């Protein structure tokens, strides 16, 4: 309603835009676009803690018993656990919050992606901060009252909505600010989502240690403190967002329409309402789903797989996993934790590396590399395990996890190339339903096959071999889908009139010269401000890398 008269000179006069409205954050000519990535990182580093929530499971499973879990009776099922105040929650029950995170991430991004394009990244970022941090406060109340349904409602549902909105909030904006480096720009932000747990998990562990008493495991207060910290960072990120005026482009950059040999990059735009009926959308959906399904299955089984495959050799003992005593099992668990930390570094680094490389290779070729190289890596794992070659085994999974992260970071630019930039954030939101699907498919396949192989009586060091070949099959499916991706039929693109109407609804200015007195219309951005913004996200990220490196060191000792 704020600028109804933008495309209608005869209409009523425009009302003053609100502080959170999109038209208030149109950048002036002197704005430095390198201020936008740290704003996106500030939000993604906070919501990325969703990956690290498992740090709370063991303390919460002893919330009443403190030293040991207060076991529920056999007659207490899942629904009874939601409301019980007399026994502790099982770890498997707590894991439902993790499932809700990613189901709600995909569904909320799909449902409200179109709204985000019109409301703008600032409003979406503020809503994300309120939902994510407010959800953590509700969870703190749930822990205090020992009501698990409150935790599911708080962090699971409300927090999951904030997760989805926060995840897609910078995508469209970054792609418009960096049309010359689409992959790198989205890679920087989505790298933050992968790095969120790297910062949040050790921070949560330190806070729980500080707040724990003889009668309290310290989780509730940890939720409160982290919610407040995250709210400050997320609000700073949301308020730091700026959008470029229509027609803005980097100095010296040639738009794709004027380039040769770029048939996969369009200068037209598709409306989000049409994507469900476009074959290329579903092909890219399958590309993401297969890449994520294979990778997410590995993440879940990385630690037990390393321990069961190499057993005592991880600590210099000539014994298989089943023959180790409790002390030895504890020692190899420490080594496996270092392996998991190493994978997290490659997951994060791969998001930036592969997405940036895709600007040179092209998105389609980048995914071909993911599927071909990934398939070879998975296929090599059984031989590495059989030969006891830990270096090749670990190296294969490091490459695999880098491409898992790279797949997330490259897909927004792939969508922008195919469907245009006007509604890429909303289209990306709908594509994230592939992530929600993969979050179920990957772990189910991996866990079912492991249990099936154990049931057949196979030695523990061999139970993952068949699983690796199934994951290769998933990547072959993804490769075939990627090879079938072609430029869109022109009939799918918006007409000039439809595009103009969509821009009017999105409150976009027709030209940079029309930018008025919005908050983004200041003069030349100071280099000191850009430096401070990057330090604001760089210091926490460096601390997280340092803490993770300490864990990785245990793997090599």
What name does the CATH topology of the largest domain carry? Growth Hormone, Chain: A
Treating each run of at least 4 consecutive H or I residues as one helix, how many helices? Answer: 18
What is the arithmetic mean of pLDDT?
A: 88
Shape: globular
Under the CATH scheme, which architecture of the largest domain would be assigned? Up-down Bundle
CATH class of the largest domain: Mainly Alpha
Helix content: 55-70%
In whole angstroms, how far apart are the ends? 62 Å
Instruction: Look at the helices and sheets and give the structural class.
Output: mainly alpha
Summarize the helix and strand pattern as letters. Answer: HHHHHHHHHHHHHHHHHH
Main beta sheet? none
The structural domain count equals 2
Protein name: Nitrate/nitrite transporter NarK
Transmembrane segments: 34-58, 95-112, 124-142, 148-171, 183-205, 217-241, 281-302, 332-353, 365-385, 391-415, 427-446, 466-485, 528-546
Pfam families: MFS_1 (PF07690)
Domain Major facilitator superfamily (MFS) profile: 40-490
Can you give me a brief rundown of this structure?
It comes from Aquabacterium commune. This protein is mostly helical. It has helices at 36-47, 57-60, 78-81, 91-119, 121-145, 148-168, 171-177, 182-211, 219-240, 279-310, 326-361, 363-386, 390-419, 424-431, 433-455, 465-483, 496-505, 527-556.
